[in-house]
Amino acid sequence: MFKKILIANRGEIAARIHRACRDMGIQTVAVHSTADADAIHVKMANESVCIGDKYPKDSYLNMAAVLSAAEITNAEAIHPGYGFLSENAKFAKMVKEAGFEFIGPNPEHIELMGDKITAIKYVQELGLPTIPGSNGGVDGVEHACRIAEEIGYPVIAKATAGGGGRGMTIAFNEAELRSGFKIAQTEAKNGFGDDTMFVEKFLQKPKHIEIQVLGDKHGNVIHLGERDCSLQRRHQKVVEEAPSAVLSAAQRDELGELCVKACEKMGYIGAGTFEFLFEDDRFYFIEMNTRIQVEHPVTELINGVDLIAEQIKVAYGEELELKGIKLRPRGHSIECRINAEDPKTFMPSPGKVTDYFTPGGLGIRVDSALYPEYTIPVYYDSMVAKLIVHGANREQAIARMKRALEEFVIGGIKTNIPLHRKIMESEEFISGKYSVKDLEDIIKRVK
Ligand code: MV4
Question: What's the mean pLDDT when you consider all of the chain?
Fold first, then answer.
């Protein structure tokens, strides 16, 4: 097994990776910016290297600096976490060429899935259901309008290099498509350097359901069930749960097996997530994430699996112990993302944490970057902690989450904990029937 792993990330996920390493007796190297000298992941690691200035481009996105840190500390592998360089195929290639193990998929698969058009075409070949549309790029707004006439409005135009809602526009008629298309295309050109667009039928009230997969270097692939990530605000997930309240066992097995077969044909290695839209009892593939995700803990808690440890073992070349074992998911898990933000305006609320008390008891987990007297820097994402609960069933998980949200004290800054309390009491959430549209209605009610 690896003796030393460099964690190329910060915040709660860096702490999470450190914990998996320590449980396995692996030494850790933290990298940090000048603004993160006091961060929890630096305190936890066996060694730390300052790799640059506060802005991500000068530090966490600085590939040469990360590789140099691995070199001087004699790390054997690099874990990229999520965000930053985690889905950068060029970085994954550089890591391997520099002689380190990249804890993640092959660069070719990162590249393939990073382009939505090639991803959709590829999975179509593998038998996954996709959304009717242009089936490839459109060569301009006139072509987009012709496709829209064929499939019928509403439609959505998306940038192939986009993701997470950037470079897309929804149109209910031709006038909206003509104006929105150009705006989205310009956003894509400026944001990703690639203004290739494609068009799909727009599903108006879908759920966002994703399947967790894990493949090793010996051709073994398993799935670990689904997560329901439909409660989102501006394409940022807010609450996630596993399993979804609406999927039947048959649907879960069917979708999971489709993803496993796709990975077997791909030769996919590492952790990955297939994202689907789910509407009127039908699934549609939209994109694949080739990284560990923020919401991985809900899958861990119902399966009793440490997904970060599995990533590390797979990268080292071990066979999946879980292969062939019929996983017996138990109970229900919910995650609330705790953001340092004003609960009413959603503006970031950095600053010094004066009081800090985390909830506890059976089935409560807090993955956090916070500690008393810690000052949250302004330069990074506003998510500072995740509160995850597990219960024997969904009702118990909701009750436990409500109690944990009451106990959770983070003083000195504003957080979205009040919003989470409202979500847990909402009819939409309690029924389990919420779609990607419902969080905006809940927020309007609590304003
Ligand atoms: C869609 C869709 C409906 N129909 N595609 C959002 C970003 C990326 N994950 C793909 N997304 C969507 N793609 C079709 N054909 C709905 C979403 C979507 C969404 C769209 C608008 C506002 C919020 C959303 C939240 C999740 C998913």
Answer: 97
Which is it for strands 155-163 and 197-201: parallel, antiparallel or unpaired?
antiparallel
Q: Which of 286, 287, 288, 437 to mutate to test the pocket of ligand 1 (most atoms within 8 A of CB)?
A: 286
Nearest Cα residue to 38 out of 373, 417, 440, 397: 373
Q: Is the CB of 165 under 6 A from ligand 1?
A: yes
Domain 132-201, CATH among 3.30.1490.20, 3.30.70.260, 3.40.1010.10, 3.40.50.1820 = 3.30.1490.20
Name the one residue in this structure whose structure tokens are 């193990």.
Answer: 101
| pLDDT value, residue 228 | 98
| Ligand 1 binding pocket includes 203 (Cβ within 6 Å) | yes
* Amino acid present at 342: D
The confidence score (pLDDT) of residue 8 equals 98
- To test the ligand 1 pocket, which listed residue (153, 168, 283) has its Cβ within 8 A of the most ligand atoms? 168
The pLDDT assigned to 45 comes to 98
- Going across the sheet that includes 47-52, the strands are 47-52, 27-33, 4-7, 77-79, 101-102
State whether the beta carbon of 196 lies less than 6 angstroms from ligand 1. no
Cβ of 171 closer than 6 Å to ligand 1, yes or no, is no
Distance 160 CA to ligand 1 centre (A): 14
Q: What is the pLDDT of residues 47-84, one digit of tens each?
A: 999 999 999 999 999 999 999 999 999 999 999 999 99
Domain 207-446 CATH (choose: 3.40.50.970, 3.30.470.20, 1.10.10.10, 3.40.50.300): 3.30.470.20
* 26: amino acid identity, one letter: I
119-176 pLDDT, tens digit each: 999 999 999 999 999 999 999 999 999 999 999 999 999 999 997 788 999 999 999 9
Helix (H) or strand (E) holding 419: helix 417-425
Q: Using one digit for the tens of pLDDT, what is the confidence trace for 210-265?
A: 999 999 999 999 999 999 999 999 999 999 999 999 999 999 999 999 999 999 99
Helix runs in 210-339, H state only: 249-266, 296-303, 307-316
| Catalytic option among 10, 16, 227, 291 | 291
The label of the residue with tokens 């929105």 reads 180
> How does residue 322 score in pLDDT terms, banded at 50, 70 and 90?
confident
The pTM assigned to this predicted structure is 0.97
Q: Is 200 close to ligand 1, i.e. is its CB under 6 Å away? A: yes
Q: How confident is the model at residue 325 (pLDDT cuts 50, 70, 90)?
A: confident
291 is a catalytic site residue? yes
Place of tokens 């496709």: 147
